[in-house]
Structure formats: C-alpha cells, structure tokens
Write a structure and sequence with these properties.
The structure is a homodimer of 383-residue chains.
Chain A: E1 2-6, H1 13-22, E2 26-31, H2 34-41, H3 53-64, E3 68-72, H4 78-87, E4 92-95, H5 102-105, H6 109-133, E5 138-144, E6 159-164, E7 167-172, H7 180-199, E8 202-208, E9 211-212, H8 238-248, E10 252-255, E11 261-266, H9 267-279, E12 287-292, E13 295-298, H10 299-312, E14 319-322, H11 340-344, H12 353-364
Parallel strand pairs in A: 1-2, 1-4, 2-3, 4-5, 5-8, 8-12, 9-11, 10-14
Antiparallel strand pairs in A: 6-7, 11-13
Chain lengths: 383, 383
C-alpha cells in the first residue's frame, strides 16, 4: 500500500516509516522538523544526535535496499499538503504531525497557543485534503488514552452505549483530558467524528498510552537508525526518562503519591498497531477507535521496576517524591478496554525484567551524554 | 457590574449591550466587524443598514442617557485583547465573538478554516486573558443547543450521570454537532472545561437554540437601534427568514421532511438569559451549563405558523419542500431539559400568533428592500 506518514521524523514516525517499508509498503515520510526546533529551543536535546530525515532515508536504503520518499514541509501550509496528494496518491495516511508534549503545552501561553493552533489546524487540513484529493484514503490518526482522563467507570474502546430514562444511544466515550496537549487530541477526535458523519471518511483513531523503547526489529544495533530519545520532563515519556535518570544517578521524580496509572506499550507494539490498522482499513463512514496499549502500571510500580533493574546492574536508584506540578488524580480507578488491536493480530511485547535490563544496557552506552541539569523542568499546570 | 461584550456588534451582541446598559451595568462592546465583512462578501446584506458600533453607542446615549464604551479590533490579536483588560477590568465578559453561520462553515474549505481558526483561537485567547489579567472574571460563553445534535435520549442540561457496569461518573453530556460551526462550539466547550478544571475559572456556557425577533424593550420602534436582520440561508435563522420569505411571496424552503425539531427563543429572552447569567455568576472552578431556549418546534410547525400569520395579513404563503442540503435527521426524538434559566428567573416570551403577527408587520415595512435572489444559497453539506 502507499502510505503517507505525516510527522515521519518523530519518535514514532521514523520507526513507523521503516517498519512499513520493511513490510513492503511504499512510504512517503513528511515532517517540518517542528519537534527538533522546539526541543532545541527548550534545551531538551535527545540522548544522541539523529541524522536528518533525508539522510535517514538514505541510510535505510543502504541497509534494507528499500526506499522511503522524504518531503520536508508544514502540513498546516495547504499548498504544501495539497502538493503531497498531487504527487503521491496514498491508500492510507498516518497522522502523527502534532506537537506531542503535555508539559510543553502547559508551559506558557505561547507554547499553548502553538500546540492548539498546530494540532487542530493540521488535523483540519488533513481532513480537507483527503476529502478533496483522495476520499478513499484511510486516515490513521494518533490520539491518546489521555483523552479519556481517569473516570470512575470502565473506559470502553472509544464508544459507550448509554441507557438513560428508558432510551438508548451510542456516543463517543466522554473525554476529559489532563493537559492542553491531550485536549487538542480530544478536539481532533471531535473534528474527525464530525467529518466522518458528514463526508463518510474512513478513519482509525488510536488512543495510545505512553510508549517506551528505542530498538525495533528494523534498527536493532544500528544507532544511526534510532529514533529521538528524549529524557527530560518536557519530551521524555516516563519509562524512558526513569531509565536515563537511573543510569545518571538522578533520583526518579515521582509526582505526588505516584498512584497515577496509565496503559503503556513497547515501541515495537506501536509499529505493529499502526501497520495492522493500515492493513485492515476502517470502512467508509466509520470512525474506528482502538485503545492502544498493552499493560497498565502505576508510576510507583514503574519506579520499583527501574530500581530493580538498576540493582541487577549494580546501580542504586533513589526515588524523590515531588509535589505534583500537574493537576491529576494521584490515586484512581483505571480499567480501560483494549481488545480491538489484539483481535487484529497484535502480538504484544511485555515490560519484563529482561526488556527493562536490555533498555538500561543500551542507555548505559550513552551515560556520558546525559545532561542531568536538563531533566527537571518544573512546568506547573497552575502557573 | 462591569461587563465586556465581545462580539458586541452582532445580532445578539448589540441588543445585549443595550439591555445590560439599561439595567445599570457598565458595558464595553467590542467587535472586529467580521460578521459585517463576511455578509457583504457573500452578498447577504441585512434587511436594512445599521449604523456602525460607535454611532450606535452615540444613538443609545442620546436615547437613554447611558454610555456604552466601544472598541473595534480582533480578539484573536492578543495585544488588542490584553489592552482591553488593561483599561477595563471586567467582572464578567460575554463571549459572542465567533463566526455564527452553520451554512457558511460548510460552504468551502476557506470558510470552514476561517470558522475553525477564528472560533477556537478567540475562545483560547479569552481563557488566557482572563487567567492572566482577571482570574475572578466570570466568562459567559455562547454555545449552542446544536452541540448536542439530536440523540435518541433526553438531553440533560450540559451534564449526564452515567452508570456503567456498577460504577458511576458525571460527564459532559456527549456532543455530536451537525455542522462545522456547531462543532467549533463543541471544541470551545472542551477547551473551557479543561481550563475550568485546571485553573478554576468561573464559566457559564449557554447552549442556545435559534433566536427570532427584532424588537426588544430597548429598541422598540427605533429602527436606528435595531440589530442586523438577515434573511438569507447563510445568516438568517429560520423563523426570521421564513417571515421575510412570506412577506416577499417567496415559498418557505423546508429541507426534506421538515420534522427537524429545535428549541427556539425570543430575542428578548436571550437578553434576559444573558443578564441573569451575568448577575448570578458561576462559582470559581464551575462550568455551569444552561440549555437556553423556551419552546421546541419542528420546521413544519414553524412553516404552518408563518402560513397562518400570512393568512391573517392577507398573504398566501406557499411551502417548497426541497431536497435536504444538510446532513441531519429529518424525524427524530427531541426532549432537552431547560430548567436552569427558569430557576434564575427567566420570564419567557412565547411564540404566540400575536408575536408572529407583530414581527410580520415590522417586516412588511421593509418589503421593498427584500432581495429574493439572495435567499436561496444552496450550500450542500456534502460538496
């Protein structure tokens, strides 16, 4: 299939592009390097330099013999986006092209405005371009489990049947997200759902949990093909960041009581989920929603797992319980459904001690590059 | 109280500004004339010219002895908005400053993009400005009953308690709007709800139905103080438009089966609802939602009521059933709650034959100004 990967330079975008290419799909990867620019501006560089997207595609071709087309530009620029559809008629597109950091979106007004503007208008342009140029194209959109927040009832897979005063109706499962970033994903879902109903678009919206990992089947042992790996509070997700903190001897930063529970998944499982979604398209007029994670952990449990892995490597890992800078429940019910992707064929990887140790060992190779002064960012939700 | 009326030049904004002024509030009315510009561009001029906002305020002062401050500018421009808070510390603000036409928002990509961009970023700026400059200021936001769509269960007043698998949670009542315009109001609600939870803003979100009418207690018999009165399919709401069509001998344009049912209210009741909301503020950290309408009618019923009024004026009114250009249910369940504003003291006006006849008589004075070639616009939802 011909697959357009928007945000193809990102932590997920580049591994996804290689993975789809390895599985015989024709990939065009598109990015405007917004993520690179912002992490540089914030002095939040990744653990190691990664080549630019053109260079990455060359390296991938040298390794695999397969080519990935690259275009650099901003999909909020209509002419650029329309041009992509002019030269590459995608069967599917993966829309990763959003500002992805929750703390960045809460940092100040300018960062919040950039996040809202970029994420909502990018999604709007994608919808319009598909309708105008490729109405059969399947939109695979990255949402987040964070759209749901932490309600006191079971989280179903995107939808809920409500019985109320003797009548019934199926609705989008109600959303209540925990940051502006997560809220922009709620707005995206609302926009997609409206245009699916109105124009009969085919959309898969993936409610993903936090991802961990660095190596995939495509880049294993080949550092030049690794994705960004951030470890600061702005851009680094919790498991990756905790592992770096452990290696650096920087106490793990647990916010508040640490009972915050989320659904996590291995980077390799993200790639499977995206590929399975692409290879099994939604129907015309269908907004198909999957909850994309493998297992749930509380922050305290993750901290204990990282401590245990540290012990096995002869590292003593401390934990520092900080006042919570976020506005969130620190102890809560959490029972989200996640069967749809398993039914499509997902073979999940689990966060075993072996996996933890393997990641920790890779990070140890980069120990000298870790800048501990960049980790703590103190972005408070209520500034 | 000091009240900032954003969108103070509009069909609701100007009557609201006068009404609050008449009731002793200190009003600053703000507008960027977007609505005037768009209706001119679309050749959808109102039934009569209205003076500009500065001139209107002068006329109001001459009539009432009360002053309304006027500022012309765009609240999507942060510096302009911040400047308003610098010179006028509002106790409350009314946020009407959005592109208000559903068909306009479905006309083409440019109109859709303008609607989304303007409405979402205006609301974002309002939230940021209140948080930064006047955190106690009560935001009274105009939403729409259209946010809910037409679900098969009773529509509650903004919120619903869901019992699911033996557990309970209160959620925003799920939204599923019928146009991009209505969807931008859903996005606004999501944004407001996020920042209410996070920053403790005080917000009243008014889910309003279509408004009809022209004369209020403040402008009665004084044409120079009338609001815009549009009668085309882009800017004219259904009752106003049907009355003009009746006077002009232009058959009433009923879409599809005509069973589409909505909650309507008299312009004078909108003013009461806004004033009551302002005078009884929401609590800090409260998103208070009211369903703002007085009675429900189907389109067929409205057409019959206009026909009857026509007969009483010696006019034969025809009905033309057109293929529905919209995507909507033409026969559906509709039972929305609307008790909150009555409890605050709303004294509703009903759409009696007398009221209908009164409006028809006013419009008859302008019969020569009606341009029947502007009425039908053929904006199809699925272009």
């Amino acid at each position: 299939m011909k697959v357009l990967v928007l945000g193809g330079d990102g932590y997920l975008g580049w591994p996804t592009s290689m993975h789809l290419s390895a599985h015989g799909h024709e990939v065009m990867a598109v990015d405007n390097y917004l993520r690179r620019r912002l992490s540089r501006e914030e002095d939040s560089e990744a653990l190691f330099e990664v080549p630019n997207l053109h260079r990455r595609a060359q390296l991938w071709q040298e390794k695999s013999g397969k080519s990935i087309a690259v275009r650099v530009g901003d999909i909020c620029d209509w002419d650029f986006l329309a041009g992509l559809f002019g030269e590459f008629r995608p069967d599917a597109l993966i829309h990763y092209a959003e500002q992805p950091s929750a703390p960045y979106s809460m940092k100040n007004r300018a960062a919040a405005g950039l996040t809202l503007q970029n994420n909502v208008m990018a999604t709007f342009n994608v919808i319009q371009a598909v309708h105008e140029f490729a109405p059969e194209c399947h939109i695979v959109k990255l949402g987040t489990m964070g759209e749901y927040g932490t309600p006191n009832i079971d989280i179903e897979e995107g939808w809920i049947d409500i019985e109320h005063k003797g009548r019934r109706q199926k609705f989008l499962f109600p959303r209540a997200a925990g940051s502006l970033y997560h809220t922009t994903k709620v707005l995206d879902t609302d926009l997609l759902w409206f245009y699916v109903r109105t124009w009969g678009l085919r959309v898969t919206d993936l409610m993903q949990g936090p991802v961990y990992g660095l190596e995939t089947y495509e880049n294993r042992g080949d550092e030049s093909l690794y994705p960004f790996f951030n470890y600061d509070e702005l851009w680094g997700t919790v498991i990756n960041r905790f592992l770096v903190q452990a290696v650096a001897g920087y106490p793990l930063t647990v916010y508040g009581k640490g009972g915050q529970t989320r659904g996590y998944l291995d980077l390799r499982d993200t790639l499977q989920c995206l590929r399975l979604s692409v290879e099994h398209p939604a129907q015309a007029g269908e907004l198909r929603i999957f909850n994309q994670f493998v297992e749930t952990f509380s922050v305290n449990t993750l901290a204990e797992m990282v401590q245990a892995s540290g012990r096995r490597h002869g590292i003593e890992v401390k934990v520092n319980n900080l006042p919570n800078p976020r506005k969130e429940l620190e102890e809560h019910y959490y029972n989200p459904a996640h069967t749809g992707l398993l039914e499509l064929g997902l073979q999940p990887h689990r966060l075993t001690p072996e996996r933890m140790d393997e990641m920790l060992s890779v990070i140890q190779r980069y120990k000298d590059r870790i800048r501990t002064d960049c980790i703590f960012r103190n972005v408070r939700w209520n500034r």
